[in-house]
Write a structure and sequence with these properties.
elongated, single chain, 2 domains, about 200 residues, about 70% helix, Serine Threonine Protein Phosphatase 5, Tetratricopeptide repeat, disordered N terminus, mainly alpha
């Protein structure tokens, strides 16, 4: 597996960061979460949005102790820890969020993309692919930005395996969805293909 830059790690982020605080007076996935706990999660997410991943992680860790089955708290903790370079901690938090999603049958599918990416960062491409494929099967339920991240992640996965003809259509879809990172990855893919042809 290739080393992952901070910019690449950002692929898994921002999947659940798009809502304004006012939009989350009630949690959209778990309406039984107390408003005060929702507000704590929103405040931590605002720290994330403003680049304070350390502060967000501390707040979210406390929240996950108080409300252990809070999907968005674990999800955002995974993103904060990834931003801090704690890839194992990130995966653990995302796996917990995924377990909550599945046990409660929450209608949220980007968690598969994010958790798949976290597995890929740690070199477990088999598990990564399985999760990314679940996200792909539900891509029509993802916002456009999350779809672009998913296509880019799948393209990156197959590019890292030297499966260039499989990678290209995913990266082209991500680029068509406005992903600048996919454009970069397509340039890398072109260089890799050229290099292999010249051998």
């Amino acid at each position: 597996m290739w080393p992952c830059s901070v910019r690449e790690r950002a692929i898994l982020g921002v999947v659940v960061l798009g809502c304004t605080p006012a939009a989350l007076a009630q949690d959209r996935y778990q309406p039984d979460i107390k408003p005060a706990d929702v507000q704590r999660m929103v405040q931590a997410r605002e720290l994330l949005r403003h680049g304070n991943s350390k502060g967000a992680a501390e707040a979210l860790r406390q929240l996950t102790v108080t409300v252990p089955d809070y999907f968005l708290a674990h999800y955002n903790l995974g993103i904060a820890l990834s931003n801090l370079g704690d890839n194992k901690g990130s995966l653990a938090a995302l796996k917990r969020a995924l377990a909550i999603k599945e046990s409660k049958a929450l209608n949220e599918w980007s968690i598969y993309n994010s958790t798949g990416w976290a597995y890929m960062i740690l070199g477990d491409d088999r598990q990564a692919e399985a999760l990314l494929k679940v996200a792909e099967a539900h891509a029509d339920q993802l916002p456009q930005g999350s779809q672009a991240k998913l296509w880019n992640n799948l393209g990156y996965l197959y590019m890292s395996r030297h499966a260039y003809s499989t990678a290209r259509p995913y990266l082209e879809r991500a680029k068509a969805s406005g992903s600048a990172l996919a454009e970069d990855n397509l340039r890398v893919l072109q260089q890799l293909e050229t290099s292999e042809r010249s051998k």
